[in-house]
Design brief:
Largest sheet: 3 strands, antiparallel
Number of domains: 2
Order of helices and strands: HEHHEEHHHHHHH
Number of strands: 3
CATH class of the largest domain: Mainly Alpha
Length: 223
C-alpha cells in the first residue's frame, strides 16, 4: 500500500514538474520571458497553484536544455546568448538539418512530399499578403512536416530544443522573405528528388538563419 501511494505521489510530482516546465519553456520561446529575466520560484508556484518542488525540478530540466542558467544568489535566469553560444547552436543545427533533408528524401512518402509543397506555397501566399501571423504558422509547419518525413523520432527530439531556443528571436524578424524563399527551394528540391541541391540549400538556409540571429541579437551580421 505504501509503495503504491509513493509511486502515485512520484507520478503526480513528475506531472506537475512537466506542466511547469512546459509553461516556462513556452514563455521563453514566445519572448514573454526575455534573456536575463529572473524566474522566481515562489511567484511561479503561486501562479500555477503548485508547490515549489516541481517548479524547482522544472527549472533544473530547463537548465539542462540550455533555456535557463542557474546562478548563485540570483537563482534561475533566462539564458543570455553570446556569439559563441550562437556558433555552437548553429554548427549543430547545420549537421542535423542536412541529415534531416537526407532522411526526408529517403523516407518521405509521396503524400508527405505533396503536403510539404502545399505548406511552402501557403507560406509564400501569406508572405505576399503581408500576414505575418500566417507566415510564422506556415514557417513552423514547414519544419514540422520536414522532420516528420524523416520518420526518425530521435532526430526530431534533438532538433526541437535547438529550434525552440531561438523561436522568440525569429518572431522579431521584420523581413521573412529570405527564409520563406529558402523553404520553397528546399521543398522543391526534395519533391524533385535532387539530393545534392537539397543538401546545399539546407546548408545555405542554416547560414541565413545564423546571420539573421546574429543581427537580431547583436546588431551586426558578422557570424
Amino acid at each position: 500500500m505504501t509503495s503504491t501511494r509513493d509511486d502515485n505521489l512520484g507520478q503526480t510530482q513528475r506531472s506537475l514538474a512537466e506542466r511547469a516546465r512546459d509553461v516556462i519553456r513556452d514563455r521563453i520561446t514566445t519572448g514573454a520571458y526575455q534573456p536575463g529575466y529572473r524566474i522566481k520560484e515562489r511567484d511561479l508556484s503561486e501562479e500555477l497553484g503548485i508547490s515549489r518542488i516541481p517548479v524547482r525540478e522544472a527549472l533544473a530540466g530547463l537548465s539542462t536544455e540550455g533555456f535557463i542558467t542557474l546562478q548563485p544568489r540570483r537563482g534561475a535566469v533566462v539564458t543570455e546568448l553570446v556569439p559563441e553560444d550562437l556558433r555552437e547552436i548553429f554548427e549543430l543545427r547545420e549537421a542535423l538539418e542536412v541529415q534531416e533533408v537526407e532522411l526526408a528524401l529517403k523516407h518521405g512518402s509521396e503524400a508527405e512530399r505533396a503536403r510539404l509543397l502545399r505548406v511552402v506555397e501557403k507560406e509564400q501566399s501569406a508572405l505576399k499578403s503581408g500576414n505575418r501571423d500566417l507566415v510564422r504558422r506556415y514557417n513552423a509547419e514547414f519544419h514540422e512536416v520536414l522532420v516528420q518525413m524523416t520518420h526518425n523520432s530521435l532526430l526530431a527530439t534533438m532538433l526541437e530544443p535547438l529550434r525552440n531556443r531561438l523561436n522568440w528571436l525569429f518572431k522579431q524578424n521584420d523581413d521573412p522573405a529570405a527564409i520563406c524563399g529558402e523553404h520553397f527551394e528546399i521543398a522543391q528540391a526534395i519533391v524533385s528528388g535532387d539530393r545534392k541541391k537539397a543538401r546545399a540549400l539546407a546548408e545555405v538556409h542554416v547560414g541565413t538563419s545564423l546571420r539573421l540571429a546574429h543581427t537580431l541579437l547583436f546588431g551586426d551580421t558578422e557570424a
